[in-house]
Amino acid sequence: MKDADYPPSPLTSDSNPEPDRHERPPASKTTLQGAPKVLYRAFVFVAGMTVLLVGVVMIVSPGPAIIVIPLGLAILATEFVWAKVLLKRIKQRISGNPPGP
Predict the structure, then answer these.
(1) Residue 77 in contact with residue 71, Cβ under 8 Å?
(2) CB half-sphere exposure, 61, CA atoms < 13 A
(3) With 70 as the cut, is the pLDDT of residue 21 above it?
(4) What pLDDT, in 10s, does the model give residues 34-51?
(5) Residue 78: left if φ>0, alpha if ψ -120 to 50, beta else—which one?
(6) What is the spatial distance between Cα 28 and Cα 31, in angstroms, rounded to a whole number?
(7) Residue 72 carries which DSSP code?
(8) What's the Cα-to-Cα distance from 53 to each of 4, 46, 76, rounded to whole Å?
């Protein structure tokens, strides 16, 4: 068969010209589209774990560990479900309510 019998390929068609190599893609199409959320979560994780670990150190050293540990968990609970569940259990234990489902 001749080339005229086949439909034109989109790769070689003149209707789809090659894009300019110096043209930048739109900002919404970059690979770092979710970077702000990831960076925020990483910051919350580092800050929360730092406060939590300082609270754990305060268990054996003088300091208000009873206040600092829940504070670290509260920071982590803003972004992580596991920390929210753990904070809820601690609140229930402190208030004397039995844990529920």
Answers:
(1) no
(2) 7
(3) no
(4) 678 889 999 999 999 999
(5) alpha
(6) 9
(7) H
(8) 73, 10, 12
